[in-house]
Amino acid sequence: TPSLDVAAIRADFPILSRQVHGRPLVYLDNAATSQTPRQVIAAFDAYYGGYNANIHRGLHTLADEATAAFEDTREAVRGFLNATDHREIVFTRGTTEAINLVANSWGRANLRAGDEVLISRLEHHSNIVPWQLLAAELGFTIKVIPVDARGVLDLDAYRALFTERTRLVAVNHVSNAFGTVNPVREMARVAHAHGARILVDGAQAVPHQAVDVRDIDADFYAFSGHKVYGPTGVGVLYGKAELLEAMPPWQGGGEMIATVSFEAGTTFAEIPHKFEAGTPAIAEVIALGEALRWVAGVGLDAIGAWEARLLAHSTQRVSGIEGLRILGTAPDKAGVLSFVVEGAHAQDIGLLIDQLGVAIRTGHHCAQPLLAQFGVDATCRASFAAYNTLEEIDVFAESLERVIGMVR
Ligand code: PMP
């Protein structure tokens, strides 16, 4: 089995040596955003201190260097997702923007009144609201793929939802609220058998497991840089080349055109540039490339195996706490421990445990439809990354017991 040198990994993250309220930081909010290794931080310095320039149009040396580094990252992302072609990689501001791009470009071109879109109850709001906004305009119907008491999608119900009007399935690969890993490969097979497309929100998957968009046969796959050891402000939309080529532009501006004329009209650039209007987050994209190299250097199999140990240890440590209920008990989970405690509000737990140096997330995790099914409006969520240790889990569990004792 692959193993991690966690001490060496931690040495790459300057932030992990800081204190919070006089105690060593225990950072367990990785599903919201992961911390950034020095190699990624250094990429910003190298760019702004060495070759800051706008890309693609310049003929000067700095513009060439910036363009090369930017396009190197596109190739790195292609490899990371095992996509066929670097033209299938579109840079966005994040997962949210990637999904909005698909909704506004593919959705407007392909969805009409009476059509049906299947969305799982496990979704983050960013894979619900863009479809609701569009449905209100175009008149298609949203049908919800149900989850069972473990937080597992009901695949029989999923199969039964399809009709001849089903055009799209929108589902996450891993749930940010519960950590459920969804069988997206099988779900894609079913969608395609019915002539529907599938968009996979991979924001919570790519930090924890190797993803192969060709093996999944995803039509679209989205993720964010800041959840995979990279910077904020950058994300990725993967789309099959033939789909992207057929899709109309979404945002207009510089970079995305071939020619612009008031008389003859405007023609658009080839993919992926057709979908990258304006100056992108150049430094962030380049830094994302560093993050993916860092992840590859450590190895996603080793990271996933280590996080499974962290999850098992934390599950075992909190299971004995009286009145604590874990939400999300799927057999296949990644990176997330979500729970509520009888007689203790999630917010109170979050605030008090922060006083002990432990960062967890409390709230609805942008998954209100899911939490509503479980009769809660907030949970506490500890989420893991490669640099977390078993000792940190112990500190978390002991701190949690202390905090519960205080609020009860
Ligand atoms: N989908 C999932 C599953 C997420 O966890 C998140 C971030 N919490 C998003 C989408 C949105 O990502 P971003 O805010 O980076 O666009």
Automatic annotation (TrEMBL):
Gene3D superfamilies for the chain: Aspartate Aminotransferase, domain 1, Type I PLP-dependent aspartate aminotransferase-like (Major domain)
InterPro entries per the UniProt record, alphabetical: Aminotrans_V_dom (IPR000192), Cys_dSase_SufS (IPR010970), Cysteine_dSase (IPR016454), PyrdxlP-dep_Trfase (IPR015424), PyrdxlP-dep_Trfase_major (IPR015421), PyrdxlP-dep_Trfase_small (IPR015422)
Enzyme class, UniProt record, top EC level: transferase
Keywords for this protein: Lyase, Pyridoxal phosphate, Transferase
Cofactors demanded by this protein: pyridoxal 5'-phosphate
Record's catalysed reaction(s): (sulfur carrier)-H + L-cysteine = (sulfur carrier)-SH + L-alanine
Function: Catalyzes the removal of elemental sulfur and selenium atoms from L-cysteine, L-cystine, L-selenocysteine, and L-selenocystine to produce L-alanine.
The family this protein is said to belong to: Belongs to the class-V pyridoxal-phosphate-dependent aminotransferase family. Csd subfamily.
Full protein name: Probable cysteine desulfurase
Originating organism: Halomonas shengliensis
